[in-house]
Amino acid sequence: MSVEANKDLARRFYETIEQENYDALKDFCHKDFVFYPQVDTPFHGVEGLIESEKKNFDAFPSFKMPIKVMVAEADQVAVYFIFEGTHTGTPFFGVPASGKTVRFSLMMLLRIVDGKIIEKRSHVDVHDIVRQLS
After folding, report:
1. How does pLDDT run across 13-23, given as a tens digit for each residue?
2. 82 alpha carbon, distance to own chain's centre
3. Residue 106 CA neighbour count, 13 Å, CB half
4. Of 117, 115, 66, 59, nearest to 90 (Cα)?
5. Cα 59 vs. chain centroid, distance in angstroms?
6. What is the DSSP string of 1-66?
7. Considering only CA atoms, which of 1, 22, 16 is closest in space to residue 118?
8. Cα–Cα distance between 65 and 73 in angstroms, integer?
């Protein structure tokens, strides 16, 4: 795939997450997909991604995470977001729903093989989010 096609795939993938359409994520992910929310903590398969991420997103119903910058080279796409949401859902890292609004940055690195995302690496400061909630 071209760099532009990879960027388009990444854009559609994150639009699907923002729409909370988790069932559709399998259409974007390679059969050997691996998600790394931390450097050495892999979640295998799209089910692992959904299990790991849905509980975070469920804490902030109707969240927004507009893409601010996307950079691509060869088979990789880096995506920078600003996440905004109000904590009215499930507990987040042990913090009960607070009603507080949070705003934080996210950086993701995707690797694409055969037109599908095979690897997603996440970089976020969870302590900043918890600080905003307390």
Report:
1. 999 999 989 99
2. 11
3. 22
4. 59
5. 14
6. --HHHHHHHHHHHHHHHHTT-GGGGGGTEEEEEEEEEETTEEEEHHHHHHHHHHHHHTTSTT-B--
7. 1
8. 23
